[in-house]
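Repro:
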Amino acid sequence: MPPVQLLGGDPLSIGDPAVFGVITVSDRASSGVYEDLSGPAILQFFEEAIESPWTAQYAVIPDEQPIIEQTIKDMADKEGCCLVVTTGGTGPAPRDVTPEATEAVCSRMLPGYGEQMRSISLKYVPTAVLSRQTAGIRSKTLVINLPGKPKSIRETFDEVFKSIPYCIQLMEGPYIETNAAVVPAFRPPADKRPPRPAAAAAEAAVDAQGQ
């Protein structure tokens, strides 16, 4: 597996710098029983899809609700993440408590994200109805639960992310530019920034190389 990248994007992007949080919730991965593949899958998505300059905070923690809550709060309140993405712990098993932790630390919920992800996953597996994924807002941070398997992460995140940059923008967070070939972010025309002119981009690239 390639090394985990905790920063990326294009310094010439029209987007603002952004900080993302990635939390893998898994008893076994956190104890070293197996390597976490889900968190790196989310980071790989950011590397492919995000044009804005970005950095990431990444943690692998057990299925303990107080720890999940505190990790989300730290990434939102201390690290300044505009987006915190969790993976794992959203099923019906007794220790699957990620949705409860998310609801406990958010002031408002955005259930549409969970509904969309279940709708997408149902195209692949009937057990998608067992998923309790949700999303919510903590101050100016969007918190969203993703599935636990890397394949399912990409099946869902590539679709739901289309609305996430505008959601963060409405929450007075950074303007996030995406690679439209990977994820074409939706915004009303009035809320889009003009693209960087080709000549200005070329000049900026020359200046950047000279620094």
